[in-house]
Task: inverse folding
């Protein structure tokens, strides 16, 4: 009955650096903050630098390569809202729950995927494993939206959508 769960169309391999929240929280960044991961914003804190911009504090887990359907978003597109402009995703990857289950990328207690906001998209490879696109670290593409998107004919979760944007969601602190 696995055919009822569907499959990815035009799949690629994507390499993702998952943020290690515990190791990031253990870092004491430069400036007044006492830990590197802000639990309220679910994002890395920013240490203070001489230019006042701040440097993101992040520790990452080992890189993981997983199948995904890759859809380009629109770089630079902005949607006007009452609170100001809101960026669209620069890129979207869609993953199949069947692979997440097989690779142990779901929390056994909650069933939630191990991907989270602030994970970093590193590279995209074709089915042969050849590099298609290397994502530069600066500014980089960071997960800003992680959401289950579909339930298949088998009445089980099918797809996981991850929206990537070119700005890491992090908190800034005054120096």
Result:
């Amino acid at each position: 009955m696995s055919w009822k769960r569907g499959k990815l169309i035009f799949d690629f391999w994507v390499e993702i650096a998952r943020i290690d929240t515990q190791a990031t929280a253990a870092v004491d960044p430069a400036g007044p903050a006492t830990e590197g991961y802000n639990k309220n914003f679910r994002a890395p804190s920013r240490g203070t630098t001489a230019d006042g911009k701040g440097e993101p504090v992040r520790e990452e887990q080992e890189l993981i390569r997983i199948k995904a359907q890759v859809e380009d978003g629109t770089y630079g597109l902005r949607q006007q809202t009452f609170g100001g402009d809101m960026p669209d995703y620069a890129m979207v990857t869609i993953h199949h729950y069947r692979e997440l289950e097989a690779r142990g990328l779901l929390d056994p207690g909650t069933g939630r995927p191990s991907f989270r906001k602030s994970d970093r998209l590193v590279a995209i490879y074709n089915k042969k494993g050849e590099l298609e696109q290397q994502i530069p670290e600066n500014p980089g593409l960071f997960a800003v939206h992680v959401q289950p998107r579909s339930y298949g004919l088998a009445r089980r979760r099918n797809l996981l959508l991850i929206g990537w944007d070119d700005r890491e969601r992090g908190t800034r602190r005054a120096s």
Q: What stands out?
A: Residues 8-18+60-165 form one domain. The radius of gyration is 17 Å.
